[in-house]
Design goal:
3 copies of one chain form a homotrimer. Chain A is of the alpha/beta class. Chain A has 2 domains: 135 residues, 3-Layer(aba) Sandwich (Rossmann fold), CATH 3.40.50.1370; 142 residues, Rossmann fold (3-Layer(aba) Sandwich), CATH 3.40.50. The first copy, chain A, has 10 helices and 8 strands. The radius of gyration of chain A is 19 Å and the shape is globular. The relative contact order of chain A is 0.17. Chains in contact: A-B, A-C, B-C.
Chain lengths: 292, 292, 292
């Protein structure tokens, strides 16, 4: 049994194996049918892409699914995550997809659990399938990682995507540049200016301004943010030939990205979503299937 | 690819084709299996009949489904309808059923969307599958539309069902009479008295008093409404021989219809619900299947 | 058609037939496939175990399912339970699983309903599948019921599980002892002291303190409850050799049961959950299948 909780636990070889498998599904390879297996989707935070693309991946693999809603469950009676997950194990599910606001929620589960966890995002920590779909999108574009230059732009401090990506992209030999307003910077990283790096980058990866997490409010107005850190129409034009734009979505049109740039030729934003299904299929097959 | 957004876009021939196909399913014709296709159900307003009969139709057709809940999605993070629907397209669904409170929500979607929309109701505008199931129920009863007399009674101003029905029934050659309290009348129509037309009608179609939309309150008490506009036990007895009663449901027992009349011999209210499944099957097959 | 609403309507022979069938599924007997049938799950109260183990049972039997959520349905427009259930019948479901806060909610449904009801719990009244899974767990342990001694401990007044169990266990020849704080006692029963009976019992069945139902607050603190009525580590040690611990869950660790006792060797708590799926399969097959 193989959990997917943190991408940092996976070697480069294991990561490449998942990417290659996902890429074969994207290229039309016959999808294995994991008949008779059941996966429960436990989402304790709102999500569209992660939740529904896991569901789509499960459907495509012929898995049966149970979608857990905290609002109508015994979580309302105070039941803990541990006891909830053990309940799903007891009633016979073969794996659980979990998104939960607590960082590293899975650490207390793993010692006593006999079914794999597929981490759909924990707090501000990990989001391994999002990173994998980002990597697949880059790999389909460039056929390699070594030497590629990426700028990650935005609310890095609160982003589980950024944290996971920085670590794995460095391991894969990419050159990672970080751009963020002071409010969203963290210690331990070097910070650069968007306009200084823009024209050198192969990939501009924008992050969402997470208005719902900034209870104290953002120090910049939306207009100021867009002007200083947003991918404006003007900046898109200055990007290197063939360079691409990525965003994990949902995006705030007119804040981190100009409305007209969302669906421009460089944008791989909707392609990332399509790749998310192939990645989740590859991950599910890797743990539940007969492949590995 | 064929959207079903407004019944007014369909010719009488196209409408009859859907009705005939639905009627064959109702009569026991083998149901085609649309294997491998996936439909997403996006309901942004509460619904029982429309939502669950679409789901039942999808099940009967062997479709896989994803039921979207706005409450647990990125709509909570401000994601727009357009971006939500494009996401479902990107992750690979073959069609979307949408109910949304905004009139003509589909107009902004259609130009950029490559999968069909099945409109489950928009604001106070259209509700094409409801009209189609009403028509099927009438067609099963009388085998024709030409010359049939119907009275639509109730909150016509707020009813998408009424608006769609008036337009299509006129085109089909039916004689449509309208009855409503002054508060629920609109300009551009002729208004009649229930007791003046009651005994002449082949069909009495009642509409629900939508208490949740009348924030200012209804000008009549429930008792007054029942007495003046409700299908009372006494009125039911005065109806023409063989005439039938319809209501899109949910109904307010004792307001627009007497408790004892709901399940009386003339009532086709539950038959309408059964027909709703056949209509939705016919519509889904028409767009996603190999029939047309 | 056979409803499962109250276990008191079933003879001992009928109960044993369900238990034997469930036990065969638990032992690996091939599970019948009820293809083409559709069950609707209508939960009007939060639940994890009952809801998801019904869903798992339905999946294992190859049934198609529709999961009804009151929050996004016409119940929001005032639709009654009766009209909601009749709607599901009209759209063609073959059976309904219902959990509802009203005692004996099913009595008004049965006279006019042509599909079976599977009661997932009504108010503080019945919870037949929970009792059946408790019985299956005991039967797997001891191979009989006659003469077995059980203590049911806790909030008996508010527990539908306790009421159903007391009745059926008496009929099966078990010796039922009841222990509860004064606040949770009812007239008509004899009440005992936990420490007086503890060492004689074959089964200690704990009930959950239902904090959400005690709006006036519990008269004991959690610590006092644990000390006087909880299965502490110390009490577990004093239990008879081979005696087992049961709890319908969700459990409050440190209140009715010590944290370390939940997963101890005597505990059958997670086994009860697994058995819940087999029981629900047996019940569904009994009504919808070709077995009986």
């Amino acid at each position: 049994m193989k959990h997917l909780t943190r991408l940092s636990d996976f070697t480069v070889e294991e990561i490449m194996e998942i990417l290659e498998r996902a890429n074969r599904y994207a290229s039309g390879e016959t999808i294995p049918q994991l008949e008779g297996k059941v996966v429960a989707n436990l989402f304790f935070e709102p999500s569209t892409r992660t939740q529904y693309s896991f569901m789509m991946a499960e459907q495509k693999l012929g898995l049966k699914t149970m979608d857990f809603t905290a609002e109508t469950s015994s979580v309302q009676k105070g039941e803990t995550l541990y006891d909830t997950v053990k309940t799903f194990e007891a009633i016979g599910v073969d794996g659980v997809v979990i998104r939960h606001p607590q960082n590293n929620y899975f650490e207390e589960l793993i010692p006593n659990l006999n079914i794999p966890i597929f981490n759909g995002g924990d707090g501000s920590g990990n989001h391994p399938t999002q990173s994998l779909l980002d990597l697949l999108t880059i790999y389909q574009e460039y056929g390699k990682f070594e030497g590629l230059k990426i700028a990650i732009v935005g609310d890095i401090a609160h982003s589980r995507v950024a944290h996971t990506n920085i670590e794995v992209m460095n391991r894969l030999g990419m050159e990672v540049h970080l751009v963020a307003p002071e409010q969203f910077q963290e210690e331990g990283y070097a910070w650069e200016n968007l306009d200084d790096v823009l024209e050198e980058m192969d990939i501009i990866m924008l992050l969402r301004v997470q208005h719902e997490r900034h209870h104290g409010g953002m120090q910049l107005t939306k207009e100021e943010y867009h002007e200083q850190y947003g991918l404006t129409v003007e900046r898109e034009k200055r990007m290197k030939e063939g360079a691409i734009i990525m965003h994990p979505a949902p995006f705030n049109r007119g804040v981190e990205i100009a409305d007209d740039v969302v669906e421009c030729k460089r944008s791989r934003i909707f392609k990332q979503m399509s790749n998310g299904v192939f990645i989740r299929m590859a991950v599910l097959v890797g743990s539940l299937g007969y492949v590995d």
